[in-house]
């Protein structure tokens, strides 16, 4: 027993004389800490510790166990006396979750240093709650962040910094989940949008009378100053959408997963399908022109090599609502093409996709408001054995 006690005393004396291990789990040694959630993919930890340094070269052993740290991300910076305390080098003991800093000090002192690293096991979920007014012209928008700590590390009275600039002081214990409201905007303007995508939707509802064909409807929000937003990108997250019913209560409209929305971009929150607007689209004419054949002496042996194709598309749009409405129409034209004639303005989204935004008046006593799209285009240089895939539903 005496030998064991002597060894323990010697170990304690040696630990006092040498620089002790600074472990992530040793909470008393952390003077301050910040959990930064600016990046949706990574969690940056910044912590301040006070080191007791001797004059000359000091070896500081930083180790972690059961904690998922990106070793290449660990950084140390001197806060109090950066001109007099220098980090000389860093070494990594083999087969250990540890590193050793060699720090030079021109005199004995207590020095505050900041240690930063990327820590795994802290994830976050972002959720939104949008409550539209009765006229569906604006929403009150709230956002919550759900933090889940499975890092193996406890953070007491930690400063949590979000991308939006908000700061919270919270305890985050290992295996703990916390929900924080970090975003609230009132009277955010919205536009109710119906979207007809010709690439995937039925062109003529009358051809499928046994199906209830509706057009997807959504609320469009623009992430800009005009909409009382635009300070930061909106994180992706599940969004629950409600509407005031005019009687001091709300009704649930739907749920959607909002994508990451940069400043200046728009997000559309889907509510479901609606029969208030009906689109009937048809291909009225197809004609192959400018045909090129192989040069054969015998006319009967000639083979078609290449040609152009003219197509005429019409779409009848009917609004059965007693309010004005906005319909987004997405059309796809395969291959190399040129628009010959179109009675509506469109935006070219990519090589094969164009988009129309059609403003529809409210229905009248005589029936639904109607508009008709007509576009004629030519697809160039179609090879006879590689005809473009034509969507015609």
Distance between the termini: 89 Å
- Secondary structure class reads mainly beta
Please summarize the sheet with the most strands.
Answer: 6 strands, mixed
Q: What spatial order of strands do you see in the largest sheet? A: 5-8-3-2-11-12
Q: What is the helix/strand order? A: HEEEEEEEEEEEEEEEEEEEEEEEEE
* Secondary structure tally, helices: 1
- Radius of gyration, whole Å: 33 Å
Question: What's the architecture of the domain at 2-119, going by CATH?
Answer: Sandwich
Mean pLDDT: 85
Q: Could you give the count of β-strands?
A: 25
Helicity level:
under 10%
- Strand coverage percent: over 45%
Can you give a write-up of this model?
This protein has 393 residues and is mainly β. Among the domains are: 2-119, Immunoglobulin-like, CATH 2.60.40; 277-383, Immunoglobulin-like (Sandwich). Helix content is 4%, strand content 58%. It has one helix spanning 2-17; strands at residues 21-23, 32-37, 43-53, 56-63, 75-78, 85-91, 98-105, 109-119, 122-132, 138-149, 155-162, 167-172, 176-189, 191-197, 215-222, 237-244, 250-258, 266-274, 277-293, 304-319, 325-332, 336-342, 346-350, 353-360, 369-383. Strands 5-8-3-2-11-12 form a 6-stranded mixed β-sheet, with no helix packed on it. The longest helix is centred in the N-terminal third of the chain and has 16 residues, at 2-17.
Task: Tag the structure with descriptive keywords.
393 residues, disordered N terminus, 6-stranded mixed β-sheet, Immunoglobulin-like, 25 strands, elongated, mainly beta
């Amino acid at each position: 027993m005496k030998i064991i006690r002597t060894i323990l005393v010697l170990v304690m004396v040696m630990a006092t004389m040498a620089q002790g291990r600074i472990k992530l789990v040793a909470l008393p040694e952390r003077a301050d800490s910040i959990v930064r959630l600016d990046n949706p993919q990574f969690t940056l930890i910044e912590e301040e510790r006070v080191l007791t340094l001797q004059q000359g070269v000091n070896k500081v052993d930083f180790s972690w166990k059961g904690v998922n740290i990106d070793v290449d991300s660990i950084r140390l910076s001197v806060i109090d006396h950066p001109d007099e305390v220098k980090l000389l080098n860093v070494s990594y003991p083999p087969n250990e979750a540890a590193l050793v800093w060699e720090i030079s000090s021109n005199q004995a002192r207590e020095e505050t240093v900041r240690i930063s690293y990327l820590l795994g096991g802290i994830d976050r979920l972002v959720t939104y709650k949008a409550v539209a007014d009765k006229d569906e012209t604006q929403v009150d928008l709230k956002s919550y962040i759900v933090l889940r700590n499975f890092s193996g590390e406890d953070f007491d009275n930690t400063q949590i910094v979000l991308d939006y600039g908000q700061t919270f002081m919270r305890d985050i214990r290992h295996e703990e989940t916390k929900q924080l409201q970090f975003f609230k905007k009132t009277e955010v303007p919205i536009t109710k949008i119906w979207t007809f995508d010709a690439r995937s939707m039925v062109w003529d509802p009358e051809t499928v009378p046994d199906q209830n064909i509706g057009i997807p409807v959504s609320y469009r929000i623009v992430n800009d100053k005009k909409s009382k937003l635009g300070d930061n990108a909106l994180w992706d997250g599940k969004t629950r959408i409600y509407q005031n019913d005019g009687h001091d209560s709300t009704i649930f409209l739907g749920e959607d997963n909002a994508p990451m929305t940069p400043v200046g971009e728009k997000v559309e929150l889907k509510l479901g399908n609606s029969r208030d607007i009906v689109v009937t689209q048809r291909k009225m004419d197809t004609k192959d022109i400018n045909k090129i054949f192989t040069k054969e002496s015998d006319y009967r042996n000639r083979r078609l090599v290449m040609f152009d194709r003219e197509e005429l598309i019409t779409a009848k749009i009917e609004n059965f609502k007693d309010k004005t409405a906005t319909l987004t129409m997405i059309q796809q034209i395969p291959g190399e093409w040129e628009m010959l004639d179109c009675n509506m303005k469109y935006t070219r989204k990519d090589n094969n996709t164009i988009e129309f935004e059609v403003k529809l008046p409210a229905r009248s006593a005589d029936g639904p408001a109607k508009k008709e799209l007509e576009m004629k285009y030519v697809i160039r240089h179609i090879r006879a054995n590689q005809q473009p895939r034509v969507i015609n539903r």
